[in-house]
Amino acid sequence: MRNSTYRNPQLNANGELTHLLSIDGLPREALLRILDTASSFLEVSDRDVKKVPLLRGKSVFNLFFENSTRTRTTFEIAAKRLSADVINLDVARSSTAKGETLLDTIDNLVAMHADMFVVRHASSGAPYLIVDHLHRIGRSDVHVVNAGDGRHAHPTQGLLDMYTIRHYKKDFSNLTVAIVGDILHSRVARSDIYALNTLGAGEVRAIGPQTLLPTAIDKMGVRVFNTLQEGLKGCDVIIMLRLQNERMNGALLPSAREYFKHYGLTPETLALAKPEAIVMHPGPMNRGVEIDSEVADGSQAVILPQVTFGIAVRMAVMSLLAGN
Ligand code: CP
Known about the structure:
With about 325 residues, the chain is an alpha/beta fold. The chain has 2 domains: about 30-155 and about 310-320, Aspartate/ornithine carbamoyltransferase (Rossmann fold); about 155-305, 3-Layer(aba) Sandwich (Rossmann fold). It has helices spanning about 30-40, 70-80, 100-110, 125-135, 155-170, 185-200, 230, 255-265, 265-270, 295, 305-320, and strands spanning about 60-65, 85-90, 115-120, 145-150, 175-180, 205, 225, 235-240, 280. Helix 4 (about 125-135) links the parallel strand 3 and strand 4. The chain starts with about 25 loop residues before the first helix and ends with a helix. The structure holds phosphoric acid mono(formamide)ester.
């Protein structure tokens, strides 16, 4: 339990969202405001978002210290649609490669008049370190958005997943949502679980082998299942996760083939869920490991719409944090 002196580092002294670091600790109203703002950007069509001047004159720095296709690109598109100047730091060619510390890099980018940092880092907590540093140097006006830190949090992925579920299913309260696979190493799973519980989802299930489930998972407000046969029964939404091999220490599974046999989503295992269930995946997908191509490319998959909705959701987050 948090003590009474705890101050959520995402909020300013007036309780307004000034950074987005995690869905944990954000009230339902804050999540709904982001989803509704994203909707307003997609009012005319589900696909097109017009350019708006909300971040004109502001500089958004994309700092991706870990690989990304979807998140980095959609943040860039979103910032450009908001009329911001976007700078993508090429980390491999930056002075980080010469030993410059993260916080020295931040100081130099602040000196270049950064207004917002979008940060992905392999270390859990890196965006919090930046927020704390900005506070100490008196630059809390520079906003930080966590674009995925270690296995801790990926709040904009959680939000775009909620946007996608609301788009297809409307109301969270009657839904049974299953999150399947490597939950132990997944920042997406943690963000989704917090968001689903905050938004009042009927039931959140975690399905996976015991070796890939966090020890205290049952304390997070989920029902735990170790087989797809039990866990997928009656589900409305299935969120598949990739095996995060890069975050595993040692072998937690016999083989990818064995994993697919027990936890791969195939047309046969998908049939255990409701016929109108939707299939989601944050990407990148490993076809034939956690998901069969027939399902990934099938009529129940909403994996590519998730990516498109990510643009509007990231526009919403950036405009609410720093909009003119
Ligand atoms: N979902 C997600 O974070 O994908 P990327 O690693 O491609 O950004």
